Amino acid sequence: MTDDPLIAAFFEEAGELLADLEAGLLQLEVRPADDELLNAIFRSAHTLKGNSAMLAFEEIARVTHVVEDLLDQLRKGRLPASGRVIDALLAAADVVRTLLTRAHAGEASSAEEQVVVADVLGTLRGLLDDEEMPVDGPARGGVDAARALLAPVVGAASIRVPVEKVDRLIDLVGELVITQSMVSDAVSAYRPDRLASLRAAVALMDRHARELHDRAMGVRMVPLRTLFARFPRLVRDVAAAVGKPAALETSGEDTELDRTVIEKISDPLAHLVRNAVDHGLEEPEVRQALGKPEVGRLALSAYQQGGNIYIEISDDGRGLDRERLVAKARALGLHGDDAPLSDDDVFGLIFRPGFSTAETVTELSGRGVGMDVVRRNVEALGGAIAIKSEAGRGTTFRIKLPLTLAILDGQLLTVGDGTYVVPLVSIVESVRPRAGQVTVVLGAAEVVTLRDRVFPMLRLHRILGVRPKSEDPTEGLLVIVEYDGQHAALLVDELLGQQQVVIKSLERHFEKVRGVAGATVLGDGRVTLILDVPGLVALAGAREAAAA
After folding, report:
1. CA separation for the pair 136, 389 (Å, rounded)
2. CA atoms within 13 A on the CB side of 82
3. Contacts 24+ apart (CB under 8 A), 49-52
4. In what order do the strands lie in the sheet with 308-315?
5. pLDDT for 136 beyond 60
6. Tell me, what's the pLDDT at 368?
7. Sign of the CA dihedral 23, 292, 315, 318?
8. Whole-angstrom Cα distance, residue 533 to residue 515?
């Protein structure tokens, strides 16, 4: 069905109109007297109704027609923008989202979905017919069912690209064609006295090729606005479910990130936002007793720093209970009674599988229930997650992500006869150890002491199963890497240059290999493995445990 460009355009625009409609309804709940906002919401519903009717998507047109009628009553002041009215309109938006998903797939809605559609329509018509209809009336079930049952919309595999990006790409292609002709002419008529002109033409072509690559990658970059727009509704629904009023503030929505990264970070972010409301915020009466506003505050922000994007989720709630986390860790034997623990160590405990201090686990979320999955998903993107928390003041989760999954800045190094790439973002420093700095503990594990800090030392040649140039650490180099707030020292033979590499997935043809993030092709044509630091550390730990 989407082979028709008109139909494809409809689905793309419908998704945007639906997002605008939902965002507008959430704002209307806060500003019920804003006529301009109400008119904008009405226009979104009217356009969606007209387009769906024109293209014979009758179910969508039927629902949006009733939505339009209800919004018209709000505009005329005949119906207040009460909570139950907003609930019903948001439920209708859920229905439309599911109907769009079905229509996009060329499928009819299921019998169960049709029941939900009928219930939601009944709720809307009841509001139109009887303003005094009770909130918990017979049709109320359709509102709740629409939230829980209906399928998510499928936001199609396409990107809307600004015209100026396309124009610059076309200009660059033209310049590259001209430069390629210059190189061809210089080669075909080559004489020793024309070497300088050949070098200049090759350098120009190299510059144009690099810029073309950067611009082409920029086409995949989209603003985080589309991702952030999902969370006000999520906060509203979770807050209503747990009885904790909450408001979400967003900033940095224009920060751009690779579309693939946005798709994969969506679920971890949703989990953190749910946690912030469910477990981060105190109950309203507790907040009042503490002198805090009854409505909890959440903040979702994004910014770029260097070659990375940072996303922060903050709340002004109770904060993480440091002493309770420490007591739980020691009860589980994760730390000795006398072992000092930094804040990073303590707060990092919630990322351990199954670790939780909650007395009861809710269906919505649980710090410690699923947080290990959040960390794994972030690290699978080549990112990292850190926590800052202050008792009584709140908690901030900070996620660091690469701009794109297609390229990375890498450090080339050698181990034995092989060349490997380590992501530059994981590297803290590199040093050559001196005699006496490397010691053996517990009979097998090696550590290195640098500036009064102790790091576990991992011999990369043993992990990779290759023969090194030397077994003596003082003849090699230590690459200090950071992973999940911890550090380790990788022993390698030699460091080469740093360069940007294009990541090629190996999983299309091979099974997933722990410690390997992918591969790349170097300038001389050699295929080189890109190493995954957390995977290498886990692999080394497993081998040490097996040996012990």
Report:
1. 40
2. 12
3. 51/10, 51/13, 51/14, 52/10, 52/14
4. 246-251, 296-305, 308-315, 394-402, 384-390
5. no
6. 46
7. negative
8. 7
